Amino acid sequence: MAEPLFTRVRWRGGYDMEQVDAFVERLMATAEGRPVDRPVTADDIRQVQFRSVRLAEGYDMEEVDNFLDQAEGLLRR
């Protein structure tokens, strides 16, 4: 699984970049078999909620959601 690059948005709703980055880092470590304090499960992906931001820079919500859907499918295998 390749590390994602999400589009940054400012004038429409986006996800908090720090929260997404932290979760994706844990997810990538889990997928690559690297040591991580709390490995991410498919259920974690299904339940994660990120704070939304407006007028501040954030990640495109649809891109993040699509990436997480794909990652969940991979972890369920």
Compact summary:
By secondary structure, the protein is α+β, with helices and mostly antiparallel strands. Helices cover 49% and strands 12% of the residues.
Describe this structure as you would to a colleague.
This is DivIVA domain-containing protein. The chain has 77 residues and is an alpha+beta fold. It is built from 3 helices and 4 strands; from the N terminus they run ββααββα. The relative contact order is 0.28.
Show the helix and strand layout:
Elements lengths: L7 E2 L4 E2 L1 H16 L9 H6 L4 E2 L4 E3 H16 L1
Largest sheet, in brief, is: 4 strands, antiparallel
Mean pLDDT across residues = 94
**What order do the strands of the largest sheet run in, or round the barrel if closed?**
1-4-2-3
Helical element count?
3
* Cα separation of the termini: 14 Å
Count of discrete domains: 1
Strand content: 5-15%
General form: elongated
Order of helices and strands: EEHHEEH
Radius of gyration: 12 Å
* Structural class by SSE content: alpha+beta
Low-confidence parts, pLDDT < 50 over ≥5 residues? Answer: none
Key words describing this protein structure:
elongated; 77 residues; alpha+beta
